[in-house]
Amino acid sequence: MTAERVLTPDLCVVGAGSGGLSVAAGAVQMGTSVVLAEKGRMGGDCLNVGCVPSKALLAAGHAAADARRAAAFGVRASVSVDFGAAMAHVHDVIARIAPHDSEERFEALGCTVLRAPAAFTDARTLRIGDVTVRPRRVVLATGSRPTVPDLPGMAEAAPLTNETLFDLRARPDRLVILGGGPIGVEMASAFLGLGVPVTLATRGSILPKDDPDLRAVVRDSLRAAGLDLHEQAEAAAVEPGPTLVLADGRRLTGSHLLVAIGRTPTVAGLGLEAAGIEFDPQRGIAVDARLRTSNRRVFAIGDCAGPPYFTHRAGHDAGIVVRNALFRLPAKARHDLVPWVTFADPELAQVGLTEAAARDRHGDGIRVLAESFAGNDRAQAERRTEGRIKVVVDGKGRILGCGIAGPRAGELIQPWVLALGQGLKIGAVATMIAPYPTLGEIGKRAAGGFYTPRLFGAGTRRLVRLLARLG
């Protein structure tokens, strides 16, 4: 009889998505023994069915959209989309990145990689396939899965989700999307760019967590691109077609239905009860500010610990856990500083508080500094003047949040992420020397607006007149 295999590493990481891989790579390179467990594909959702394929598809859609806009520059272009080739591009991008997340790379780094489901058998022990693992510490990084509503006819319709969407090879005749959050809006933008008619229905407004003024920029652009948008629309059922039936009786028929209403943390089957770990099936694993679960030997990071569901949040969590688990430092996660970007055409980015959230927290003492892309020379030169920036500050100029809707908003938000994280005041941005002509000047111009009333007010004019009289 073969002896049972028992491993006693310093650290066991469950889940080889972006967060788990970051912890495993960092820990093993610092001399820690690491077991990495993954029951599915290495790289997790982000690489295989999430961030990477969606942004690759968006790049294809945006390339086609840019070609259609070329006439404004005197460039005549005929746009013909090969949908199969666009999807081949998506999978080529995945294949190019996959080696970085591969089992071979992590074995070479020194990890023991177990490709099997993991579950706790008690507070300190896991069973991973046919291996028993008793680590000093455990990091759960099991991610999340798409939420599919239990509507009449939904199961029979077998709708697309982000897990199956990128398997398409033939161009849909019409894509119906249920859900107006970032995933739904991004895929609407991508497929519209590729010439696919798109209908989108959402129970509230699109991008409900974003500032209304900024989401309006995205909404107007999507409608101009041909989106058939239905907001404040409650889904009631799905009929063959597939046809999405709304509560008011409207029927939205397409060749394909994509469900993108949100994410649910992946916690089932982990044996969390046996380990004494508190969790909720819908909200995920309960953690404190140091990302420790109710079992202090176990940490949870990324989507499995609940929203916000972003890859870069998982990466931030990974750094916090390494400091806590390896160095025993009381590092705390700062999810209030996690930015987010919806990579539609144009993009929408946000960090910190929106105007509404800032008013709820700070009252009427805030100031909103806003600028339009139309006032930016680079935007005019590139004929991409749709968009605006909104910066929220308190009365003393402390930055509370920033939102940007417009081309390359995901890049433009980054100085504001730094400023907010470092506690900088608005003057740091206002006095920055920005190269001309760049889209980044719009941030400096908005920041300068904080000083405009004082700089050009009556008091300044009196002072200038007085100094002029003194010779």
Would you give an account of this structure?
The chain is an alpha/beta fold and 471 residues long. It has 3 domains: 5-145 and 264-336, FAD/NAD(P)-binding domain (3-Layer(bba) Sandwich); 154-261, FAD/NAD(P)-binding domain, CATH 3.50.50; 346-455, 2-Layer Sandwich (Enolase-like, domain 1), CATH 3.30.390.30. It is built from 17 helices and 25 strands. The strands form 7 sheets. The chain has a 5-stranded parallel β-sheet, covered by helices on one side. A 5-stranded antiparallel β-sheet has the order 21-22-25-24-23, sandwiched between helices. A hairpin with a 5-residue loop joins β24 and β25. α1 (18-29) packs parallel to α9 (311-327), α3 (51-68) packs across α4 and α3 crosses α7 (182-193). Its cofactor is FAD. It holds the Pfam family Pyr_redox_dim. NAD(+) binds at residues 179-186, 262.
CATH secondary-structure class of the largest domain: Alpha Beta
* Rg measurement, Å: 25 Å
Tertiary shape: globular
**Helix vs. strand class:** alpha/beta
Number of helices: 17
Number of domains: 3
Assembly form of the protein:
single chain
CATH architecture of the largest domain: 3-Layer(bba) Sandwich
Please bin the fraction of helical residues. Answer: 25-40%
How are strands sequenced across the largest beta sheet?
4-3-2-8-20
How many angstroms does the end-to-end distance come to? Answer: 102 Å
> Tell me about the biggest sheet?
5 strands, parallel
Low-pLDDT residue spans: none
CATH superfamily of the largest domain: FAD/NAD(P)-binding domain
β content, as a range?
15-25%
Number of strands: 25
Mean pLDDT: 96
CATH topological fold name of the largest domain: FAD/NAD(P)-binding domain
